[in-house]
Input
Amino acid sequence: MAARVPLDEYALTPGNATPVAPLVSVEGVATARHAGDVYLTDVYLQQLSALSWVTLHLSNHVQFVPADVLTPPGVPTSELAAQGYLQMRDAQLAAEVEAFRTVGWRVPATRVGATLTGVVVPSPASRAKLAVGDVVTAVGGRPVTDACGLVAALHGLAPGSVVRLGVRPVRISSTGVLSWRAVRRVTVTTAPPPAGLASSGCPGVSGPDRSYLGVALEDDVAYRLPARVRIDTANIGGPSAGLAMTLALVDLLSRHSITGGRDVAATGTMAVGGAVGPVGGVAEKAVAVERAGARVFIVPRSEVGAARSGAPGLRVFGVTTLAQALADLRSLGGAAPDPLSAPRTASG
Output
């Protein structure tokens, strides 16, 4: 009975530290494998039952997280898997863009829609069966190119307005691969916004919103990469592998090893532009790194203490940017990025 009673609490426990390069395929430019690997690290996230709560509270290397910390208000934890896979897809894309830019390529970008990152239940969006990962491309026949474009299009509409959206529905495979189908029309009836709804912060959108869909949003951006890249992260969600994937791609695209032949683990979000952001479960990830045999761990600067507490024997570097991570690797004997394929201009 205790095993079947779910709690509103989750546990993070050490997962795996996995070399990234064997997961990557690149078509269109030269690559090389070097001595030393860059490892991504993950954690296991499980909802607790009354029984597992007791068992895990007697275990080492466990972090307990309330359910309401994992999702925004009104967004159910049933969306966690889809959110995690969307975050991984975003992390892969940012890693690819930043890796190519780091070795000298120009990567043009075009905003092409507003991606749903959360759907409040109940809400007009949930009643219209919109889902995490869907991309809104139009409102009332007019193109939407980013999140603020969608907010602006709905901002002044009276509650109860019937709105026709152009939506590219997402399909998420059983292993977490996202793909999008052709645009379809979705009809939504807006609702009055709930009390205390925060301002969108979008430029040119002032005052409270009159209409409400019940979604969280991000820009959908298309990048023109110089090669086709695939990273096999089956069944791994979340954004925390962004830094590791970026470093591994830079190493593959470079003439010499950027790690100096060392095995190096990394965790941290990667933003287009090079910023490295904080992630969860760093102490537990440090345990996985130590178990894998790596001795260097690059983490977001704010989480150096957590990494050292999880595995005091690791050499830990704290960074806030990709450039800092590359500089730290050079201090260990790694080479500066030097592309195997000479970058071409966008026109070729």
The longest strand covers residues 6-19. The chain has two domains: 2-108+224-331, 109-222. Residues 2-108+224-331 form a domain with the Ribosomal Protein S5; domain 2 fold (CATH 3.30.230).
